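Obj.: predict assembly geometry.
Materials: sequence records (below).
Method: joint structure prediction, all chains together.
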Amino acid sequence: MLQASRPKVASGAAHEGPSIQLGLDEPLKLDCGVKLGPFTVGYQTYGTLNADKSNAVLVCHALTGDQYVASTHPITGKPGWWHILVGPGRPLDPERYFIICANVLGGCLGTTGPASINPETGKPYGLSFPVITIADMVRAQAMLLDKLGVEQLFCVIGGSMGGMQVLQWAAMYPERVYAAVPIACAARHSAQNIAFHEVGRQAIMADPEWRGGEYGLHGTTPRAGLAVARMAAHITYLSEAALRRKFGRKLQNRAALTYGFDADFQVESYLRHQGVTFVERFDANSYLYITRAMDYFDMAADKGSLANVFSGTKVRFCLVSFTSDWLFTTWEMREIVHALNAAAADVSFVEIETDKGHDAFLLDEPELHETLAGFLNAAAQRRGIARK
Amino acid sequence: MTDAADGNDDPMPVAARPRAETRRPSDIRVDLRLIADMIRPQSRVLDVGCGDGQLLKYLVQARDVVGRGIELSQAGVNASVAQGLSVVQGDADADLGNYPTQAFDYVVLSQTLQATRNPRQVVSELVRIGRKAIISFPNFGFWRIRWSLLLRGRMPKTPALGYEWHDTPNIHLCTVLDFVDLCERLGIQIERRISLTSRGRTAFLQSSLHLANVFGEQAVFLVSKPER
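Observations (raw structure tokens):
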């Protein structure tokens, strides 16, 4: 089981598209105290920045996402992960907006992460890479925007970990954000979610091929461990109802149970496929670092209450949750809404009815697209961004 | 199903799903016009149960208010957000507690009080959050309702209250006098009362509470709670 060909991502070599060196003059001060610099950020842009620089949109990707939001993935060859939302005639139309999406700090597709070569040693960072936070990711994005000449974003949008970044943007750089759209996320990572992440990390670290995180030096990859991490995580992205609807107890290419541990059930086969294909495109250490960043996320930790974080904010918020999402529940999104109400912020919130679980934010959910199109269009009109 | 949380794998087929209905008709109701007339320009307004945002939209455009809404139905919220209104999905019973005291100049609850689980609590919250609250509701003391119950011996149905007893969302109906009594109990001051018949506003109903309790089909109250 869980066989895969040699992954192509360990060094980030498969990255296509622009990348930029940041932190040359002044390094990025990370929350952990380490100063990182220079470092590289891989990114994609769509459309052009207008004359008054008012039409920039930053799309923030999720845990295992990347900058290929609307372009073919260089490894999998699949369409961009949010091509149903970003593209000609879509709610985020490059004809109207200048859309930016960057691989997060700690990632493995063009941005500096644990698989990158440490200039001081000439070897991959491995576990010597500093632990990063969601705020660090946002700081790196802000440095990228400085270089791209974007002072204020018309909108920062993202789901899941992308939504965490959106909230962090609004909290840390309120003057640089006109509108914020956090989808299916939370202002703090829950105990249950930390628990699932820990299962994934332990699976990776239990794989002998992980080699204490130095597999880059040994020419190995903890494939089985990373695949198991992905399988466990994948279950949390779905819902019981969706699994029942799609798979039930259906058998995989066989008429009867085999009385063994082969993938008898379709759902097993499906999960194994998810695990194996994931290993092709993702670095195991990046998975450790980015899940850790999410675990550490707690916006109100040193602010007393979440309302204090957003007090006096001028940012226009639109939050979206999904009924069957048990990873980032409506309840957690409502907590953010309540805090924003208490801060007298301009906020809209929609809970969308679906059985597709957390994954719904990536799928063809007409209600999601209508909500986003309506909110973005109304905000753009107010901001004076012409429709072309 | 997709490659979760990044969407790089095969999408799951999308099942067709019926759309939710908006709760309110699209034409501007007479009580909404009355409410709008009570609201000073450029004030901060929270519309609780804002439907598709008809009143809010009007207030934003015609009165230049800073408007916010709460609405239960997804279709209503979507319709509101699509018009550029700031509306959150929620309901009057559960979601008022988080708003700061006197966060708004006006809090509007139009044709929703009778559908709340705890009207007493809701009304208390309205006058806490808003300097003034505007509450409109169908008057269950209206003579046609009394007559219908007396004559037919069946739960009354009127144009304003058209549901069967077993499928009505209206679980806490009251009369004009009942509402006045609740305000007294809660120490709430009634600043204005307007009663309506099916023909609209009628002068003879405005002077007498008891006439309004019999002949008014709808009531709109402007209330506030004096600071102690």
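Conclusions so far: The radius of gyration of chain B is 20 Å.
To do: check interface contacts against the pulldown list.
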